[in-house]
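User: For my dataset I need records formatted as: sequence, then structure tokens, nothing else. Please produce one.
Assistant:
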Amino acid sequence: MGRLFHMPVTDARHRARELLDRFDLTEAGDRVVKGYSGGMRRRLDIAMSRISRPSVLFLDEAERLAGNIMVIDRGTCIAEGTATELKRDIGGDRVEVTLARNEDLARTTELLRPRATGAGSVDEKARTVCIPVTDTHKLVPRIVRELDDDGIEVLDVVIRRPTLDDVFLQLTGHGAEEITADPDEDAS
């Protein structure tokens, strides 16, 4: 990996040894990676991403590896907590019901309201009703039965669990890729 970043061979080897030691992989350093355990492979992935000493590292595995996550927007910490806490703070799990007919949207919203833990949303174009919930245990079959008993034709019912991308978007109001280098540049 160091050579891919155009590091001199001696620097790349030194950095590799340093990272193998830091991530407790020194003893496995000469083994073929396919012989590594899953945890060792994840540690190796992170070590490899650190070889060029990046100032920021975005981890797709952050949810599983980090005990505490800090959400930073334009250089300011705007939230901090575990993945579970951050997801709960933005509303947690959601049930999304897709219907066959638009005319059933209002009735479905009414039937789902007692289960909602906050404000839901309706998308007329997609014919969906989405509500935040806390208890998803056996919820999908109960909703399908209830709506069917009321004569509402359901195409799909899914539980949507928020991702860390959802957390970032909800907290900041924009995706990470939408950030400009200087927010005042557009003001001129």
